Amino acid sequence: MKATKPIKQLVALFLAAVLMLSGVGQPVGAAENRTAKIEDVIGTVWIIKAGGNLPIRAYPGARLGQEDRVITENFSSVKLVISDTHDELTITQNADLVLTDLRNEAGKKVTKLLIWAGSVLSNVNPDKNRKDVFEVNTPGQSIGAKGTLFLVTVDPGTGRTTLSVLDGIVGIRSDSDTGSDKDRQLIHPAQQTIQYPDEIGATVEFLNFEDLNSQLTLHMLEQIASLKDKFDKENEEFIEETRRQLLNGTSLDSLLFNSVEELQRYERNIQFLMEHILQAAIDSGKSSSADIERIIREANRSLEQPINLGGREEWILTERERERQRALDDARRQREEAQKRELEERKNSQAALLQKIENERKQQEERIKKALEDAKRAATERLREGLDPDAKAELDARLRDKELERQRQQDAANRERERTAPPPVVQPSSPPERPTPPISVVERNLNSAKAQVPVSAELYTSESWGRIEVALGLGESTDEEKIVKTEELLNAISGLVTQVDQNLMNAINSVPSDSELYSDESWFNLMAALDLPEETAEDKVAKAETIWVAISNLIERDRMNPEMVLAALNDFYPDGSEEPIDFLTSYSDVLGIDFYTVDDEYERFHPFAESLAYEVFYARPEEGFSSIDEFKEIYEQLLLMNIEFVNEIMPDIKEINVSVIGSIITLSWENEEGYRDIRIFIDGEPIWESNGIEYSATFAIELSGERHIHVEFRHSGSDWPQAISESIPVTLER
User: What pLDDT, in 10s, does the model give residues 142-172?
Assistant: First the structure.
């Protein structure tokens, strides 16, 4: 089982950094790169590594680094944990964010992310170093926090940022603000802001539970409920500190009140903040009463102050606060109407552009058709000029006969089509239907974009054609959705890559990076292949084939020469085109290490052979390895660290019984450990999970044939498996 290259790099960076701290190959005073770990994945989540553009599927246990990008699809979410500070990020569906900064510099841990779209619930650890930085950036806004639970939602269409604070204090600053971090506007518990990219400063208001509920998922509600004790305690401390400041005469404009009496009302409100959030989820119809009751039941098992919906007090706002809220709502409504008008103008502009493209296409077709007819007519005239009168008459007769035969065949085809057409279905008489409305401009634009999609997918790479399929799968129920779908289709069409281009690219990317490992003559032949032209598709096919032949004919220099091996170890670049484990394996005889077998015992759970090959180069001293023995010494240290790391996180093995009848699977097991949650995998892919199951589970699956099944067991509320079964082969029948 092989790990993907980006994941290997992440683990390599993590372990190599640890080794550098021990003094091997670490420059004095250098900043350390940190990582985030994926703890849980629901649905389809993609990772794009820093500097790359190829998305890979996210999975629990994967590590992310600085500048890595996370994208979630519909009905999907992912939970990240910053490895050293234990800050948690829960990212919901249709989100797009980048981990822009993960550094440890001069004892200060810096964590920054940029959200382009979607909702992110941040649970920032309050116990970390006060110098540490945790910052969330959105289009036009910067949000800084220390020990806070808050939700940030970005609308990708408008750039609107909604910030909702549940616990702690958040400082925000617009990108257009000229002040320093110390001048950030403060947002307190049970407050929110809604800000657009072009606005300077944010307007603070109390939480609107209807708006908040539209952003929270059921998974987020579970997480927030489990943290009730934490934010109750911290909100209580905040109230006491605020009361002390008010009694001392300090003005707190950011809190929206300035008296002890108003503070008492605010205290009563946030005392039942959790209850109001959960009740709003029920009232909106977004979550069922059964789901909320389950969340409360699970959370109350570990809470000191249990959640009690029936015991909550009314959320009280003064008339002044209500009037202020109405004014804000009116202002936003006016803005949305202006955006709607702008959207309509955008529709018309797009329609005009597409109409121009369509007109140019038709004109081009007419020009080509006329040119062909002119060329045919000119050729006929040139032929007639060299003929005598009898030959000309014979040519004209043949041309007439040919045209008559073409017309006869066309008439016969039309008659056959009419003869084989199904008889019309006689419908019962009914009132006349309303006339079908004319197709809208937006609909016509979408149809035009669909018509430009090539017929054959085989000519293009699966990745570029996959964007076409994704765009075709987008919804088109509303005009807004149709506009988005039209744009995505046009972008996907412009980004299509042919198989010929991809094959040539693959050949070029397969060229080894180190010419010194090969003979001069064989390397010269490869360089000559790279200089071949690539103007036409035929040129590209020939060039790719020539490059592959030249690569296969490369003659390697003596790999048994220790001096040459040491030079190769110091010249090798681990992020080049050749995999480090393949490179090292080619020198196994001199190095005395079988690199592919180092993790045989751990391959099933956390394979690290390939990542270990990366690590040894990341830990290479700045001046290079002084000897092969030094290389082997560093490698052995990293190997022991990998084994210790995997042993700490490897789950226990648990026996299960499996019974299969057709496509119905029944599992049963002993449960002395009291596991409550399970996740079931078929051929390594998660297909079913459930909470509150103790001894057995039965389910049906739409698969057939030989498969392998295994099960993960977790304690209730845990995001990491405590036990896992062996992989068991089963035969499924539909």
Answer: 898 877 899 999 988 778 899 999 988 898 8
Q: For residue range 262-275, what is the model confidence (pLDDT) as tens digits?
A: 788 888 888 889 99
pLDDT of residue 26 exceeding 90, the answer is no
Identify the helix (H) or strand (E) that includes residue 635: helix 628-649
Q: How far apart are CA 727 and CA 650, in angstroms?
A: 15
pLDDT at position 35 = 92
**Do 221 and 201 share a domain, yes or no?**
no
Structure tokens at 662: 């057709």
pLDDT at position 23 is 41
Number of domains in the chain: 4
DSSP-derived pairing of the beta strands 728-732 and 141-145: unpaired
CA dihedral sign of residues 205, 211, 213, 219:
negative
Q: Give residue-wise pLDDT tens across range 643-655.
A: 777 776 666 777 8
* Average pLDDT of span 450-479: 82
Residue 471 burial (10 A CB sphere; 0-12, 13-18, 19+): buried
Give residue-wise pLDDT tens across range 570-591: 888 887 767 888 888 888 888 8
Closest CA to 281 of 218, 226, 342: 218
What Rg value do the Cα atoms of the chain yield, rounded? 34
Question: Any idea what the Cα angle at residue 242 is, between residues 240 and 244, rounded to 5°?
Answer: 70
Which residue type, as a one-letter code, is found at position 417? R
State yes or no: pLDDT of 375 exceeds 60.
Answer: no
Q: How many CB atoms lie within 10 A of CB 214?
A: 14
- H or E element at residue 435: none
Distance of CA 497 to the CA centre of its chain: 22
Partnered with residue 45 across adjacent β-strands are 72
151 lies in the same domain as 71 = yes
In a domain, 695, yes or no: yes
Q: Does one domain contain both 144 and 235?
A: no
Q: Among residues 271, 185, 171, which one has the least CA distance to residue 231?
A: 271
Rounded distance between C-alpha atoms, residue 415 and residue 399, angstroms: 25
Q: How many CB atoms lie within 10 A of CB 63?
A: 21
CA dihedral 353, 357, 363, 366 (to 10 degrees): -150
CA distance 178 to 174: 9
Cβ count within 10 A of residue 379: 10
Residue type, 230: K
What is the DSSP code (8-state) at residue 598? T
Q: Rounded distance, CA 282 to CA 269, Å?
A: 19
Alpha-carbon span 441 to 446, nearest angstrom:
9
Q: What is the DSSP secondary-structure string of 500-567?
A: HHHHHHHHHHTS-S-GGGB-HHHHHHHHHHHTS--SSHHHHHHHHHHHHHHHHTPPB--TT-HHHHHH
Same-domain status, 77 and 179: yes
Residue type (1 letter), 652: D
Q: What is the domain range of residue 708?
A: 653-732
Whole-angstrom Cα distance, residue 53 to residue 62? 18
- CATH of residue 100's domain is 2.60.120.1440
| Cα(253)–Cα(169) distance, integer angstroms | 14
Rounded Cα gap, residues 257 and 551, in angstroms: 74
Does 216 lie in the same domain as 198? no
Strand-strand pairing, 108-123 and 133-138: parallel
**Which of helix, strand or coil describes residue 385?**
helix
